[in-house]
Design a protein that fits this description.
three-stranded antiparallel sheet, 504 residues, alpha/beta, D-Maltodextrin-Binding Protein, domain 2, five-stranded mixed sheet
């Protein structure tokens, strides 16, 4: 366990004085508890760093919390550039400082948990967490520490997933016989693309391309689509203790070499020999621009992949193009469908999966008041605050008990629904991995799919891993009954907060 400073212990004693009653959720009804005694937080300052979310979004929640904790000050700092954000945090933490609370990419927790202070056990358990938040959040944020004891290292405000955007006008017209929507399977998507493609005599060969897929140089989420396919093929990315990458090897399951099969499917959409060929380097030849988002906004491609925030990116691009004149997509024609699957989800017993990418809030190991910081994060991820957050940002929920309401949203409902079956895997460095897999995809575009480039990528990633692995050997198992079925979205075991109420 991480040793707390004497001052930290003092704060824990203070916090404990107003944890008057621990409520156990049995019937789903809230039990009334006495008002928490007032505690003076004079002199306690928490620095909170977050990327992308503006001051106007976070201030109301922060002010509401500090108003109930007299003397407490939370300084919020927003970053708009991810590279600067990462650099500042790493440099400041290396010097023993940095933020007390910050957002961290979900795929980084396995390799960076030693930089964090876990949730105090008297605030909640991994079982509580698993009952409150969706499975992918549990798998990403609940990790065994150096002693093999499972700890909660992050609190997610949102879980975003990869989905399929489509042009309703084009798809509705050309795929009317199929219901006017994209197919649910990859084989069906191939047929869709054949019908959606509209040839031209231009260098790109397409007046309208069916789908932006098959390359990584001129598609914003080209590598993420490959991650999605790796998951769909059931590829094991690492060995058990994360000391070696194994995605290029023989594994069995759906395919003997799932990493190779996933790559073949991906690049087939950029292979001129395939009937469903729909993308090349000339469709979008400005890699530094808006890439497929601009082409989609102009009606030059019928389907693209994106996250929930991609909707706002498309709308902004449409508004920008409108000022320049020319044909543009009508905003009402932006459609969103779930990520295609290898097997038809309507008739198959095979699990559905999509790729999750999101940030979760966490507490630094350098934080002098970790109990106060974690108490704030529990409050931050209560249902009432995440309802507010969704209305402000449209970022889909991380909580099981909010999926039902959010899946009714006409625009973002697909993303809420997908959180129930989303998956991810640890990534040591987003940009290094992106460069490695971009190179794999580009070589496949130029010379065909070869196991040698994937083996080379596997070697490069293995060299990044510590010889002893990222986690302790699994002699212990995750806490029993730690995760409820994602279909159960109403009754959640409470995470405990300082006001003695449930995290609802």
């Amino acid at each position: 366990m991480i040793k707390k400073s004497p001052h930290s212990k003092k704060i824990q004693i203070l916090v404990s004085t107003f944890l008057v009653t621990i409520i156990v959720l049995v019937t789903g009804c809230r039990t009334k508890t006495p008002a928490a005694p007032k505690v003076n937080y004079d002199g306690i300052v928490l620095n909170y760093y977050k990327v992308f979310d503006g001051q106007d979004i976070m201030d109301p929640v922060i002010q509401d919390y500090t108003s109930k904790h007299p003397g407490l000050k939370i300084n919020y700092r927003q970053f708009s550039d991810f590279n600067e954000y990462q650099r500042v945090i790493l440099n400041e933490m290396a010097e023993g400082g940095g933020p007390d609370i910050f957002s961290m990419q979900n795929t980084w927790f396995t390799s960076n948990y030693k930089k964090l202070t876990p949730l105090p056990s008297n605030f909640g358990t991994p079982q509580d967490f698993g009952s409150t938040f969706v499975d992918v959040a549990y798998n990403d944020l609940v990790r065994p520490d150096e002693k093999g004891v499972y700890q909660v290292y992050g609190m997610p405000m949102t879980v975003d997933t990869l989905a399929l955007y489509y042009n309703k006008a084009q798809v509705g017209d050309r795929l009317a016989a199929k219901g006017g929507k994209p197919s649910k399977t990859w084989e069906g998507i191939k047929d869709d693309v054949i019908q959606l493609n509209k040839a031209s005599n231009s260098l790109s060969r397409f007046e309208v391309s069916g789908i932006a897929m098959g390359r990584a140089d001129n598609i914003s989420r080209g590598v993420d689509i490959y991650y999605l396919l790796l998951l769909e093929f059931g590829t094991k990315i690492y060995n058990e203790n994360f000391s070696q990458a194994i995605f290029a090897g023989q594994q069995g399951g759906i395919s003997l070499y799932p990493g190779i099969e996933a790559l073949k499917l991906l690049v087939s959409f950029a292979d001129a020999k395939q009937r469903h060929y729909s993308w090349n380097e000339f469709v979008v030849n400005d890699p530094t621009g808006s890439k497929e988002i601009e082409a989609f906004s102009k009606g030059q491609v019928s389907m693209i992949f994106g996250y929930a925030y991609t909707y706002d990116d498309i709308v902004k691009e449409i508004n920008s193009l409108r000022d320049k004149g020319g044909t543009i997509l009508d905003v009402k024609d932006i459609g969103i469908a779930p990520a295609p699957q290898l097997y038809d989800p309507d008739v198959s017993n095979n699990k559905r999966v999509t790729y999750a990418s999101y940030f979760a809030e966490t507490v630094s190991r350098n934080c002098k008041h970790p109990d106060v910081a974690w108490d704030f994060l529990i409050e931050l991820t209560k249902k009432k605050n995440l309802d507010y957050y969704f209305n402000k940002t449209h970022k889909p929920t991380s909580r099981r008990d909010m999926i039902g309401d959010q899946r009714k949203d006409p625009i973002y409902g697909v993303f809420a629904d997908q959180t129930a079956y989303a998956e991810s895997f640890p990534i040591l460095d987003y940009y290094i991995y992106k460069d490695i897999f971009t190179d794999v995809i580009t070589k496949a575009n130029l010379g065909g799919v070869s196991n040698s480039s994937l083996l080379d990528a596997q070697t490069k990633i293995t060299e990044m891993l510590p010889p002893e692995g990222l986690v302790v050997p699994q002699n212990t198992k995750a806490p029993a009954d730690s995760k409820s079925s994602t279909k159960s979205t109403t009754k959640a075991t409470p995470m405990k907060a300082s006001d003695g109420t449930l995290a609802n």
